[in-house]
Structure of Kinase-like domain-containing protein:
Amino acid sequence: MAGEVRQKIDQKALEKYISANVPEIKPPLQLKQFGFGQSNPTYMLEDSQNNKFVLRKKPPGKLLSKTAHRVDREYRVIHALESTDVPVPKCFCWCPDDSIIGTEFYIMDCLEGRFVTNPAFPDVSESDRREMWKDAVRTLAKLHRVNPKEVGLESFGKPTGFYNRQIKTFGGLGKDQGDAKDKESGEPVGELPHFKDITKFFGQQKYQPKDRGVLYHGDYKIDNLVYHKTEPRVVGILDWEMSTVGHPLADLCNLIQPWTISNATPSWPRIHADKAFLAPSSPDSTASKYPGLPTQEEAVKLYSETVGFDVPDEELSWAKAFALFRDSIIFQGIAARYATRQASSDQAQR
């Protein structure tokens, strides 16, 4: 999972900073870089006591987006949630000083557990598959039940108007990312198809879900969760760079997206689409091979019961459509970062 360091950092400067500021970590360090993630470079640190930690930093160079790569927000929300029942890793430091390793960074505990990339949960028992999905849903509901003010996050984001801000933010990103030019060919990434019509549609308030504000993760999905080594429960949520106060349906739609994209995407294959999530009536569905896998309706019902409010079908449909639009902007952003050679993941070009 962690291997060769592709984006070098000044290890001596990092060790000097850690020695002065983080007594829990004992240099010298062994550094490796994780291959997952499309945004912020992420490193494994192993100290002289064989303890493992994770460092997250901003990517180098001029950034295309002021709202992305917010590792300072990651640190703030993870640290605040340490006192709640939401499972997060322990944070050890936040360093805003760019002179240490080139960009700001923070260090957190390295959670030992299982990282699952296929939300159908292959190679587990029927009961574990059912419970691992249920705990992913329950964990999201726990996050959405947290009162931001009670954990010092009352200024973390605005409690209303989330989707309108998202439309404005992603609209601006779509333009900027489309203008990004390939470092070698000089060709622009280009505007998304039907971009103006889509943003106009979503901006019509009469179709939008009821306004709500909760602590919002921003990329809540199975492969951003860490599961216990042997038990079917979540021990940590990772990748908080897009967190804020936002609409709960946006997080929920991200979690249930395997069903959405598997049934709504016209071209196959697509990353994260899986025939296990096709409607059981579909002749291509493989759901029967994954006993215990809930339906989308069961997942939404459990979320609603746990979080304490209803999720009307028409609101969920709108929010799922918006999630697909948001995905397209995110994919365009990966293309733009690859074009400017700022992409962190070794899978960015693909």
User: Anything to note?
Assistant: The chain has a mean pLDDT of 92. The chain has ten helices and eleven strands.
